[in-house]
Amino acid sequence: MPGYDPNLIFDATGGYLRQFERLVAIMAALRDPTTGCPWDIEQDFDTIAPYTIEEAHEVADAIARKAWNELPGELGDLALQVVYHAQMANEGGKFDIADVLGAINAKMVARHPHVFGDESRDKTPEQQTADWEAIKAAERKAAGKSERVGVLDGIALGLPALSRGIKLQNRAARVGFDWPSTDEVLDKIVEEARELEEARDSLGPDELAEEYGDLLFVMVNLGRHLGLDPEASLRAANMKFTRRFNYIESELQARGKAPKDSDLTEMDALWDQAKAAGVK
């Protein structure tokens, strides 16, 4: 007998708890070694992890585009990833979906003593953030993850580089390792740009990559000082570039051309035309 209710898979009635149970049952059926999907059966944590990251980015993309009609589907895809990992863990006797949900529920209650405990709610967002980090550090120490709980401990290596950069800088800033204003950051950008120029002319690819990374890291710091999210800002710039290049392609098509039939002068003029037309 399977470890799920087959009837539940095709029963779309009921509220969100019933629908969640249905998703868990569907995932178990897909992984059933006898009757499941061959592709799903052969997957493991390593092969599914990239899809998990991809689905999270698709959620962010739908939000950035304000595609609210698409967001439920994207969130569903992301929820499937959680259930997928939990199902594989359950098969290996590691943990199950109840452990996953229990862990996050316990964490949210423990990290919000001002909501679920007796601490005062009269705190600024900055103080709440500082308290959150202090609780996390205490949790890491209690779990014995490190004899020395470092300021930068626990920031996931798998984060997008821009997102991880701002988290590293925020952590360092909380203990005073930060420039006092954007003026110093801008000066550092100029310095790093000059070093990159020198590396381009005199150093090898490894040194060039290092200098380029230094410049990107300082650009992240500038965004942080300006109160901007570098990841979101770059995502918006990517979308703007896409819309304007689509405009160029449309205008070229009206002239009976494709981009490969054009040249930089013509396409650059169309880019300026797109800007003047308010394409953002």
From TrEMBL:
What InterPro entries does the entry give?
Answer: MazG-like_dom (IPR004518), NTP-PPase_MazG-like_C (IPR048011), NTP-PPase_MazG-like_N (IPR048015), NTP_PyrPHydrolase_MazG (IPR011551), PRib-ATP_PPHydrolase-like (IPR021130)
> Sorted alphabetically, which keywords does the UniProt record give?
Hydrolase
Q: Specify the protein name.
A: Nucleoside triphosphate pyrophosphohydrolase
Q: What class of enzyme is it?
A: hydrolase
Q: Where is the NTP pyrophosphohydrolase MazG-like domain?
A: 43-116
Q: Which organism is it from?
A: Thioclava arctica
Q: What is its EC number?
A: 3.6.1.9
- Keyword check for Hydrolase, yes or no: yes
